[in-house]
UniProtKB/TrEMBL annotation:
Protein name per the record: NMT1/THI5 like family protein
Xref: CDD domains: PBP2_Ca3427_like
Keyword RNA-binding among UniProt keywords: no
Taxonomic source organism: Candida parapsilosis (Yeast)
Alphabetic keyword roster: Signal
Family membership: Belongs to the bacterial solute-binding protein SsuA/TauA family.
Length: 323
């Protein structure tokens, strides 16, 4: 268990350390890059090697498992579920985004046979980025909420573009395109909205996560070997979040210029998001992040092991102390 206190960690050398940080290229990544632009990492003697992961949280977990990255920022439910299932190669460090995530449920624009989420009881092949990803896990939560039990068929599509093609019945281009036709998929609302406006896909429902939406995680190896660097990283991220909160216009410009959003949608999103502005400075909110998430995942049959087994795994791999 990582028990180093904030006041015990201070840079003692000017040697620049490198951390490999995996992120999903969506609006939520903005404070990470503000921290880079404002020189906060460099002031903490850190060089950050950013690894873009459009495939989602399932891919982030694989990268951590293989020690291909040191840090990953992804969806709460994906990491809590994987740790609870017995993955001992990752550590959940703290909350990154405190507000819930609004998942939109989408299908193809010309799928006239599907008009609402209840229709998925009949047309129920769900597109997901990867098994174990947020889009996969939240399909169980949606099915449970709707009284379906669970969806039994999944089309693994790897990324958002393939998911959109999948529900529009666009045939894969070549043998390695990596997806099958599906009936619906779930993705973050504001990331989907541009494609609603363009009538490429249509929205048939939505669901909020009942927990804070994003977390910062580390590989077990990095957590053991790079405690100082991890402390410096989260300190820099805190500064990036503070900069974001005080420069909303600049955030909107950055998102509209560098990511796949209109300025109008970016501004609307900034009104809904609440980042954790004390990452690593206060203990993780165990009830919201661990207990509540685990209870919902158990109800949705994502987690099926005994309570004692699940609790032990989470106790060992989710930090309860400051970073």
């Amino acid at each position: 268990m990582f028990k180093v206190k904030l006041h015990e960690l201070h840079p003692t050398t000017t040697t620049m350390s490198t951390l490999r940080v995996a992120y999903i290229p969506e609006h939520f990544s903005t404070p990470l890059f503000f921290a880079q632009q404002q020189g906060y990492y460099a002031k903490h003697n850190l060089s950050i090697e950013f690894v873009k992961v459009p495939e989602g949280s399932g891919r982030l977990i694989n990268l951590l498992n293989n020690n291909d990255v040191d840090i990953a920022i992804g969806l709460t439910e994906a990491f809590v579920a994987d740790i609870a299932k017995g993955n001992d190669k990752i550590r959940l460090l703290d909350t990154y985004v405190q507000s819930p995530l609004l998942w939109a449920v989408s299908t193809g624009s010309n799928r006239d046979e599907i008009t609402n989420v209840q229709d998925l009881a009949k047309f129920g092949k769900i597109g997901v980025s990867r098994i174990g990803s947020g889009s996969y896990i939240m399909s169980f939560v949606l099915a449970h909420q709707l009284g379906f039990g669970k969806f039994n068929e999944f089309a693994i599509c790897s990324n958002f573009k393939n998911l959109r093609d999948s529900v529009n019945k666009v045939e894969p281009d070549g043998d390695t395109a990596g997806y099958e036709v599906s009936d619906a998929f779930m993705w973050e609302y504001f990331t989907s909205k541009k494609y609603y406006d363009a009538k490429e896909i249509k929205q048939i429902g939505e669901i909020y996560t009942p927990w804070p939406s994003w977390v910062i995680t580390a590989s077990s190896k990095a957590a053991a070997d790079k405690q100082q660097d991890i402390h410096n990283f989260v300190s820099s991220v805190n500064q990036g979040i503070e900069y974001f909160n005080h420069h909303i216009d600049e955030a909107v410009d950055y998102i509209a210029s560098n990511l796949d959003y209109s300025a109008e949608d970016a501004r609307q999103w900034t009104k809904t998001v609440q980042f954790n502005d004390k990452v690593g400075q206060t203990p993780l909110d165990w009830d919201k992040i661990v207990v509540k998430t685990t209870n919902v995942l158990k109800d949705a049959n994502v987690l099926q092991d005994g309570d004692d087994v699940i609790t032990k795994r989470l106790d060992e791999h989710v930090y309860k102390t400051n970073i």
